[in-house]
RNA sequence: GGGUGAUUAGCUCAGUGGUAGAGCGCUUCGUUCACAUCGAAGAUGUCGGGAGUUCGAAUCUCUCAUCACCCA
């Protein structure tokens, strides 16, 4: 069988994938040794709508390297894969599809039908990314594939699983512990998707905008003196009398909801106005002027209108000052005035104001400005750049919006999550990210977890009519809220919330609660359920019915992925997997989801099972394009990993990513680099091809410790060193160091030197057998150690010989520097240095590459003489030396070279270029002189001798000696040159 | 405005106190029987500026400049 000159990745990769698959090579516990320690990693679940991008490729490569490495070491490995249902993203995709197909939109179809439709979409198109992962070589256990919506109502066959139960259980547990609450608060509202989103899903975008100044007339005929001119010390010198207060705003349309005007308590211009009122134009609502430090005297006019229902800062000011919050928009951010009791209460809106009803917020803005200009209360307009919050999915401006939502008490949960990292129960690497983690958790706000969507886990809360203690039903919500948990205002009534993991539990709870309150039996029905379904008829006197309505909202996707560690292992059941693989060994992820996901997993797992979800968190950088730009579809600079795999092979892509994975820095990916590592694969392939052509076959009985030839012992020692370097690098997540060590060994040691050294050895009958066996072993070790990085080409090469097992399950070596033979190491080191030096001189002297020349030895130590004699064949072949002779002194016109104290020369008078040689010597001497000067200075410094460690001083002395010796030889050569 | 990080060869980047490195690119030479997706040789650096600590600083401290990202 003869091998091609290159590895045909495209043809071979699918075959290898099939091979692994049919061997269930990646199954949980595959290749685990008896009594093995577990090693578990969670795949950060990609969105079900996603396709593999460079970030995934990077992330997965790192995880796969760890998984394959540990699996070969015999650990009990579980790499758990799965998909995220991605609420907004998925709903968006399916809605877009409906629109494209001209089908009824989701509102027309209804919730149940729509959700069914999403499941259908998932069955067809969801999870293509997992197929793409296989191309990359991901060795996760697909037989355990998880999905964050598995087991949810409406899930089709094949989508069973515990995840929905786990999510609801998590919610109920937190609810019962008082860590989830419902409240009317200002939230980030996405008017496009018509749902609340969390702080993290908001992007701040810088925009050019205006600062409008509006005049709000003072009421009750009030006037004041407003300073208009100042002296040099900033004292006002001239005033004008005003009967209005000028406020500045970037959002004039929100004025409809203004309930106050704030000024700074120390602002001399306005502080005397505090307690007075202004009349809101258009609306004719009376607004109190309040003092609040939020009003910045430096900004705008120093007086700021307060709209608590449409601005987070204003909400705070309003709370402090006791101002009303008036919502003037609907869920699509259209102005809503008609029938808006809050708005109309205490207002006498003009017809112009009422005409704004139903208009988009931006249209209303224009209209209001036009009216203000017309009516003379527009004071002026300044251009300004300000940041505007946008939805990260919809890209539309977020509207702060007053609604009832569910929140997680993140502050309480953050405590243990902070503690776990502070005490080192979980390590975050690189450490710099710990700071970010701490900072965020220390300043965390309640996490809004309810979403007004349909695709997701519906909140397991049902509402029924509230009954007070003693069986009294309050008539209205005007009075104070009942002093009980789980009682909320809903459509102007008090309702009692019942939370439970399933409907029957809730029904029972509710029936007991109502019975206790009303003193008679109560039968609970769920909305939409018939009396039959309710399962009972009134049997006793006084029995009544209560209808419970389920909260229509679903949970934030990140709430469910927040329990990914335990959910994928079977929680809330106490499964063997949970006991064995939890906590997981390491989480590998990008810093962009440190808050979204990592911190929340820490909080939720610690609360739910009291143990950290992972021992280590390895945060890697982002993949950018060659110019350092973040890859994005809109910029069109996206490198598609699948395309790159098609072109260069998965191994090349993986090795590139691993090489660039230095901690903490973004990596810029270029095709050149990938091509370079594709070439590295070819290099390895051809080394194997060389071995194949020379009859090197792996021998299971080969014992590297019993090899006798120096060159063989040398490369075996190098192999031992590599194993140590590699394991150390991988244990510290220094993937680039690991990749670099492999590259340097395989290319720089094995291919550049050992293969060349082997050639003359193969020609020698006495030396060939040991060398063949060593070559086979050395290359096998390369395959084993490269496998986690380049699984395809290594598995393919491994399969060239009969093997007991696949490479993916081969034993990872445990030998180390014990294989290094110091003598062989020194000897080969000197021989290689000699060859390097001769080559260098030849090239610089212009000796034709093909010419064979003579090497004269002048001054060699005994060991060097022995080394030269023993390795004569190597020197002759690799330095193209024809003859070697000893000489007492250098002949005229010979070129002198020094190699670690040895002096040799090349008598090449016929080809020598005297000027070139003079230049070469001068340059070498100058370099040595510079070094010697530095060393002399150091050694002449008494403080250095006195304070530097002894070994450093000794080393400097030795180096100076060697440098001076070499310089002397070269000076002598320079002098001889003068004779020519 | 606050925070974090970066600044090293033409480019992209390693390098945690003791002789400045890699890959790519570039120049010259070479198709010797593993590989031209190759081999050999070579050039290229006041390690962003300044100050300090130290026997010794690319590395530690301060400061300035520039850039990037995150948060408000």
Total number of domains: 5
Q: Per the principal axes of the C-alpha atoms, what is the gross shape? A: elongated
Query: What is the CATH domain class of the largest domain?
Result: Alpha Beta
- CATH arch. level architecture of the largest domain: 3-Layer(aba) Sandwich
Q: What value does the Rg take, in angstroms?
A: 39 Å
Distance between the termini: 58 Å
Count of helices? 32
**Helical residue percent?**
40-55%
- Largest sheet features: 5 strands, mixed
**Structural class by SSE content:** alpha/beta
Tell me the CATH superfamily of the largest domain: HUPs
Give me the CATH fold name of the largest domain.
Rossmann fold
The mean pLDDT is 87
Q: Strand content of the residues, in percent?
A: 15-25%
What is the number of E strands? 33
Q: Could you please describe the fold and organization of this structure?
A:
- The protein has 980 residues and is an alpha/beta fold.
- The protein has five domains: 31-175 and 556-620, Rossmann fold (3-Layer(aba) Sandwich), CATH 3.40.50; 206-391, Valyl/Leucyl/Isoleucyl-tRNA synthetase, editing domain (Isoleucyl-tRNA Synthetase, domain 2, Alpha-Beta Complex), CATH 3.90.740.10; 466-550, no CATH class; 668-820, Isoleucyl-tRNA Synthetase, Domain 1, CATH 1.10.730.10; 847-979, no CATH class.
- 43% of the residues lie in helices and 19% in strands.
- The protein contains 32 helices and 33 strands.
- The strands form eleven sheets. The protein has a five-stranded mixed β-sheet.
- Helix 15 links the parallel strand 23 and strand 24 (544-550).
- Helix 12 (410-422) crosses helix 19 (594-609), helix 22 runs parallel beside helix 24 (735-762) and helix 23 runs antiparallel to helix 24.
- The model has no long low-confidence stretch (mean pLDDT 87).
- The protein binds one RNA strand of 72 nucleotides through helix 13, strand 29, helix 22, helix 24 and helix 27.
